[in-house]
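All the exercises in this workshop are built on plain-text protein records. Sequence and backbone structure share a record, each on its own labelled line. The structure tokens are whole numbers drawn from a learned vocabulary of backbone shapes. The record below serves as our worked example for the rest of this section.
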Amino acid sequence: EVQLVESGGGLVQPGGSLRLSCVASGFTYDDYAIAWFRQAPGKGREGVACIDSGDEPTLYADSVKGRFTISRDSAKNTVYLQMNSLSPEDTADYYCAAVTADQGWYCRYHPHEYDTWGQGTQVTVSS
């Protein structure tokens, strides 16, 4: 079974930091690009970041550039999203995703291009 599991979310004050983790099982993790998306209440799913099979990172949302970093630890089968200088606008459910059916090595931009998703982890930024 191919599975992605997110963790690391929680409640944080504005200006604080969180590190989200996406742990994979059931496939060769470092052969696949892993993307992070987020969805705020009542809003659509937004691409945040992606790291490809060669560990080349991409940040999709202008609002997170300079604040978020994506990285991979292949030994732990985990992709991380380090989030710094958090603001209330970052409040959302955060999901990791992969393409496991075919050509999963490269990053896609749109959520419909991904076929495997984690259950999500909630991030709330509030004072």
Q: What stands out?
A: The chain has a mean pLDDT of 94. DSSP finds no helices and eleven strands in the chain.
